Amino acid sequence: MPEPLPEPEETRFDGDAAAEKNRVAEALAWVAADLTERGAKAGGEAKDVLDAQALMAQDPTLIDDVNGRVDGGRTGERAVHEAFAAFADLLIGMGGYMAERATDLGDVAQRIIARLRGVAAPGVPESDTPFILVAPDLAPADTALLDLEKVLALITRDGGPTSHTAILARSKSIPAIVGVTGALDLADGTVVVADAATGVVTVDPSAAEVADAERRIAERKAQAAAPITDGALADGRKVPLLANVGSPDDAPEAVALGAEGVGLFRTEFLFLDAKTAPSVESQQASYTKLLEAFPGKKVVVRALDAGADKPLSFLNDAHEENPALGLRGLRALRASEQILRDQLLALKGAQDATEADLWVMAPMVADAEETEYFVALGKELGLNTVGVMAEVPSLAVLADQVLATADFVSIGTNDLTQYTLAADRMLGSVASYQDPWHPAVLRLVKMLGDAGATAGKGVGICGEAAADPQLAVVLVGLGATTLSMTPAALADVRAELAGVTYEQAQARAAAALAATTAASAREAAAAA
Ligand code: PEP
Ligand code: MG
Q1: Nearest residue CA, atom 1 of ligand 1?
Q2: What is the CA radius of gyration of the chain?
Q3: Which atom number of ligand 1 is nearest to the Cα of residue 414?
Q4: More confident residue, 429 or 15
């Protein structure tokens, strides 16, 4: 993939500033129109991303900054570079979701500079044969328009799981492995196997490894083509398969791929750019729209999970040294109880207006006292089914106390792994700890599963772990009663579950629990 354009030089510009500003204005308008056109072509989620980028190219504050720099003796190219870089720094300083938007800004700047220079913007190379694309990071504008016939998979050096590259690739069902150190050392033309399910890239695979990969690809294709049935084990035991969604617009795809309901609606995704708390009416409209897509089905909605990688400026924008350990999830909601009450009221409105079976849960809950607080508030406001997420290890340790009050528990394995292994899930340097196969995580899941069985209450899984077919079986063996995942993963998990009995799932779970590392747990489960 072509390297970014070199940085424009810092030479003094003594020409006609007014003419230079006009040239920049033309380039900004051209890039904005180009991005809008690409968005219209791509449609869906990509359109939203590209429209947002087009807005960046027309942002009045940024344009003022660029013009000011031209007046101060910069060339148009240099002024664009400096103004966009300064804004990107600001976003990076904010961390998390905002920092990931800095990539989008850098891409817009590159496109404007390319236009000013009269050269093509860096982008995806043309090729007649299908290929795996390797890049430092991919701009949303490029990811959105990837030719699905040509690009077999994506490998990037940068990017976290919530970067737009990952989000868009997932929505286009392109296997994508992000954050691969050393990705750029791969020479053009190298043969690699990219397995997005495990995140493993095999360089120069042996004939046996290629044959194995081809067999697995054929298997996946057959699974995807298999008729859609409800989730069940080989012995008929039901394991409802639910979808993780971030917007009511995700519902049609989830339904089409056979989701039996929603296991996690990340409501904060609706409000990441909001400056003020959303009104009860606007929230109720969004929730009603989602619930209407699932008449008679279960829909689990999570109360706003603000903080750490997903800051919401109206809930918690204070600087924290360790935001993952800070005022996030239920802690932030409790500190701004009116916002929580408004959300629960909006959910009650949606519950009454639709036929869906609404369940509501709180994120980042630590113990029985916090559970009692949330459940009591939810019931006071008229919600039928109220539960909590198990993401903090203390909640698993106290599962029996928690389940005395909560109607259900849903395990967020992403955060449960982060907190159990004390490894920031956004940090590439400790990414190897972020493995839910770790027996410490599995033992906590078992504690929750056992407590759920004793209390006769549901214990679901809604973290990424549920999307790993082998791990999904183990989680069911540990007592998980439902599995919720990105809709694209439903077919693989459905097929895997159908091949094992509950007894076999329990045997795999027991083998994994006895292992000492994540890797050996995976092997032990496969051999059981
Ligand atoms: C989790 O932590 O596993 C989870 C489902 O929540 P999120 O990924 O949104 O933090
Ligand atoms: Mg979480």
Answers
A1: 412
A2: 24
A3: 3
A4: 15
One domain, residues 261 and 395? yes
Q: Which residues are catalytic?
A: 164, 462
* 68-84 tens-digit pLDDT: 999 999 999 999 999 99
Note whether residue 3 is domain-resident.
no
- 268 Cα nearest atom in ligand 1: 9
What is the reported pLDDT for 161?
Answer: 54
Please write down the HEC assignment for all residues of 110-140: HHHHHHHHCCCCCCCCCCCCCEEEEECCCCH
d(C-alpha 137, C-alpha 169), whole Å: 12
Cα 141 to ligand 2 centroid, rounded to whole Å: 28
Looking at ligand 1, which atom is closest to the CA of residue 463? 3
Average pLDDT, rounded, for the chain: 90
Q: What is the pLDDT of residues 391-418, one digit of tens each?
A: 999 999 999 999 999 999 999 999 999 9
Residue 93 inside a domain? The answer is yes
- Residue range of the domain that includes 57: 17-117
Note whether 273 and 212 are same-domain residues. no
Pocket of ligand 1 (CB under 6 A): 264, 266, 305, 391, 412-415, 462-463
pTM for this predicted structure: 0.72
Pick from 204, 224, 244: which residue ends a domain? Answer: 224
Contact 402, 409 (CB under 8 A): yes
